[in-house]
Amino acid sequence: MSAITIFSSIFCRKESVVRTLADKTGYHCVSDKDIIARAAELSGMKPDKIQKAFSAKTSVFNNFTHEKERTVAWLRLALAEILTRDNMIIDGFSSQLIPREISHVLRVCLIADMKSRVRHAGESRNLAEKEARHQITREDENRAAWIYYLSRNRDPWDPSLYDIILPTDKTGQDEMVKLIEENLRSEIITSTDASRKAAQDFILAARTEVALAREGHNIGVCARDGAITLTINKNVLMLNRLEDELKAIAGKIEGIRSVETRIGKGYHKTDIYRKYDFEVPKLLLVDDEREFVQTLSERLLMRNMGSAVAYDGESALNLISEDEPEVMILDLKMPGIDGIEVLRQVKETQPDIEVIILTGHGSEKDRELCMSLGAFAYLQKPVNIEELSAALREANRKIRERKNSPQLTTP
């Protein structure tokens, strides 16, 4: 049992190297697309949602929802399953999820300088130099963010991450494939009892991470010979209760012999550990009164309702297109695009977002217009926090009912 991983950025001639390597070795190619498809099958998530895990941009709601961490947990499990097969070439971001303890993996990095990549972009995609540089920079940023997320290493091309780094602009394709084949025959890459155990530990850790993520937990997981260590990296008000809950979840997983918890490096920082409540909506507050909206955000957080904030209509619309909130609390009077226009556009493009109007300047005519445009509720400032919380709960109930209702299909 052995594997080759390939990590590269765009326009480094990776595709032809991987094809030739597969032909020469007989190894089966597995791409990020394949692993995403399996993760989607396991989790029920949409593939395009899983794909976002590889982006440098993280959702503004992630501090509360742990969306990226949950997605990565499913990717790890999909990859761990695939890695049990013999003779694989794993190509892409997912390859970086394989623990270093699995030694029967040859880690290969393909790189090239900017000039060569720009030229290749023009030849293969007919891209102008400016557009090519823009795409290359953006994709390199995604890879740098991914490596930093996984290892806190800011250099995605750091030699310590790989067994071989091959400059595709200075090395011929046949020579690169030959070098990879030669290294693949090295005794260092040979499968051993220890490396096979490490692969089984990878599966066990991935299953544990997914089980915890299902319950809303974001916890570090390490497995060794069936023993699981769970690392708590944020301060928690009731540590013993959290430890008992984590152990109960992990202890149900087949193959685990023991579970222990420990405190991580980040435990003594000011961040408070919060289990994600799947029944709480992703909430966006839109108001140009910064002090008011920040205070409101803090008061809602005390009720376990985390929120993101936008201070003008344009920012809100941009955020909605990228991060998909479920509920908005929206002011009417704002500079630039006002609240009524934001409401109109939201309901035209994403009608499932429930919008609660919260304003200090609206009239009865404004209320009638907002409700006719599809607002869920219309509240006046100053608002009683309990009244607002009740409106949020009702909006969330409507969202959950819609999500849980069977989808009608047409013949």
Automatic annotation (TrEMBL):
InterPro entries: Bact_response_regulator, CheY-like_superfamily, P-loop_NTPase, Sig_transdc_resp-reg_receiver. Keywords: Phosphoprotein, Two-component regulatory system. It holds the Pfam family Response_reg. The modification 4-aspartylphosphate is found at D331. CDD domains: REC_YesN-like. It comes from the Bacteria. The keyword Phosphoprotein applies. Residues 282-396 form the Response regulatory domain. GO terms for biological process: phosphorelay signal transduction system. Gene3D superfamilies: 3.40.50.2300, P-loop containing nucleotide triphosphate hydrolases (3.40.50.300). PANTHER family: PROTEIN PILG, STRESS RESPONSE REGULATOR PROTEIN 1. This is Response regulator. The lineage of its organism: Bacteria, Pseudomonadati, Thermodesulfobacteriota, Desulfobacteria, Desulfobacterales.
